[in-house]
Automatic annotation (TrEMBL):
<dbReference type="Pfam" id="PF19054">
    <property type="entry name" value="DUF5753"/>
</dbReference>
<dbReference type="Pfam" id="PF13560">
    <property type="entry name" value="HTH_31"/>
</dbReference>
<protein>
    <submittedName>
        <fullName>Helix-turn-helix domain-containing protein</fullName>
    </submittedName>
</protein>
<dbReference type="InterPro" id="IPR001387">
    <property type="entry name" value="Cro/C1-type_HTH"/>
</dbReference>
<dbReference type="GO" id="GO:0003677">
    <property type="term" value="F:DNA binding"/>
</dbReference>
<feature type="domain" description="HTH cro/C1-type">
    <location>
        <begin position="21"/>
        <end position="74"/>
    </location>
</feature>
<dbReference type="InterPro" id="IPR010982">
    <property type="entry name" value="Lambda_DNA-bd_dom_sf"/>
</dbReference>
<dbReference type="InterPro" id="IPR043917">
    <property type="entry name" value="DUF5753"/>
</dbReference>
Length: 276
């Protein structure tokens, strides 16, 4: 095809969305104009989305899912594209997380998004708005993204999700007693699922704790590895499996030093009751 632009899905979440849209359109033999008619837009709009010049709206992505029979895959992917207040690499990470076979994460200071209750997530984002660190629209998008990421775990077969929480995650009060009590319930329920494991890295690990910042390692369906790490101002997505293997080894060392799941749940219940 003359002047058909090559797409690089690895260059960002918008490019990944556009590449998937073009691939499925090509598989069905539809032109951009034909797909546009199905979606109620022009062929030039389809072209702009495919090459990443125009971000997909949620309404557009929902229409694409209906046209291709893809459930809510495009809708979820579009949410990652539209994030305006996320650290570098995170939107692409979210798209990969939604298809990962295994998810290993370690968090410090705050309950990770995959385990947050809506009230916990909203409380954090409300205070981001109060501090001027986010707009109300950005906060709303972040809370919606938490819910979307959690819903992606309900796919069949579900991913294996292994979580290690630094003890500070449990001891940092967010939103008062009612919010934390519900959040603790959520953690205990998560630990009881057949495809999960929850451990706490206690303060007593001291210098033996191998990570000082949050880290996530994904095992993708083809068994390749990807990791994401972030500080308060920067994020880094590592796509090279060879570079991720040492991080995975360190994660296993973290698990060995952390409390067992039973001991971790016991600590959660003791902190909730104020007995520890």
């Amino acid at each position: 095809m003359v002047n058909r632009r090559e797409l690089d899905p690895e260059s960002g979440p918008g490019a990944a969305f556009g590449a998937r849209l073009r691939r499925l359109r090509d598989e069905r033999g539809w032109t951009q104009e034909e797909l546009g008619e199905l979606l109620g837009c022009t062929g030039s709009h389809i072209s702009a989305v495919e090459i990443g010049r125009r971000p997909p709206t949620r309404r557009f992505a929902t229409s694409v899912d209906r046209a291709f029979g893809t459930g809510d895959r495009f809708e979820r992917q579009s949410l990652a594209v539209r994030q305006t207040a996320l650290l570098e690499g995170f939107p692409e990470y979210v798209a990969q997380e939604a298809r990962a076979a295994e998810i290993r994460l370690y968090e410090v200071g705050v309950i990770p998004g995959l385990l947050q209750t809506p009230q916990y997530a909203s409380t954090i984002e409300d205070h981001e708005v109060m501090r001027g660190a986010a707009t109300p629209e950005q906060a709303s998008e972040r809370v919606a993204l938490v819910a979307s990421r959690q819903s992606s775990l309900l796919r069949t077969p579900p991913p294996l999700v292994l979580v290690v929480l630094d003890e500070s995650c449990l001891r940092r009060p967010v939103g008062g007693h009612a919010v934390m009590d519900e959040q603790f319930d959520r953690l205990v329920e998560f630990a009881e699922l057949p495809n999960t494991a929850l451990q706490v890295a206690p303060f007593t690990m001291a210098e033996r704790r191998p990570f000082t910042l949050p880290i996530t390692v994904l095992t993708l369906p083809d068994r390749s590895l990807m990791s994401y790490a972030q500080s308060s101002h920067r994020g880094h997505l590592e796509r090279d499996s060879g570079s991720v293997v040492p991080i995975l080894t360190t994660y296993h060392q973290l698990q060995v030093g952390a409390l067992s799941q039973d001991a971790s749940v016991s600590m959660i219940n003791q902190i909730r009751k104020g007995t520890k």
